[in-house]
């Protein structure tokens, strides 16, 4: 599996004109979402960007929701799961997967909502899930319990990325945190000034993995 080298926000060149592919359309849709935001995306704008009649897109995707499934799959492909530390301890594998997933999503803050609101059912995603369950089973963790662990890690990582993305895309400007020296400047505001927006992710990830290690014996 290889990652797409196209910078976020730039529509990639079609592999062969005038032939479209599902993968190319998903990559182009992701680029438009990166550049203009999810709310401004439409199938018509995608058709214009790739130089085709928008109706041509419907030969590859039934509707916009199906296209967004493809966008989520394109995001998953950026994780490059083939190069994860599969031969190391399961904790190392889980940590690296979560870090890559977080970094991938935060490269595309406008698209985090797309990934967060649909299951990724591509063959690559399914194969990765099976391989992870097999890895944990080999460590003595039953598959059902392993799946619960993987779901917790995914939800923690995606939820974190969604919160950070929303903040960076404008929510931070609406913060009413009092400034130092003001009468309302309290302990909570002081603590917030002593932290970074996303410096708690690895702390939380470590705590979760330690808890899983304890529960798995």
Quick one: overall form?
flat
Element order, helices and strands? HHHHHHHHH
The quaternary organization reads as single chain
List unreliable stretches of 5+ residues. Answer: none
**Mean of pLDDT:** 91
Annotated CATH architecture of the largest domain: Orthogonal Bundle
Number of helical stretches of at least 4 residues: 9
Radius of gyration: 20 Å
Distance between the termini: 34 Å
Q: Using the coordinates above, name the CATH class of the largest domain.
A: Mainly Alpha
Query: What is the strand tally?
Result: 0
Structural class: mainly alpha
The portion of residues assigned to helices is 55-70%
Question: What's the CATH topology name of the largest domain?
Answer: Tetracycline Repressor, domain 2
Strand % is under 5%
Task: Provide the number of structural domains.
Answer: 2
Outline the structure in words.
This protein is 57% helix and 0% strand. It is mainly α. It has 2 domains: 22-77, Arc Repressor Mutant, subunit A (Orthogonal Bundle); 81-215, Tetracycline Repressor, domain 2 (Orthogonal Bundle), CATH 1.10.357.10. The longest helix is centred in the C-terminal third of the chain and has 26 residues, at 143-168. The two termini are 34 Å apart.
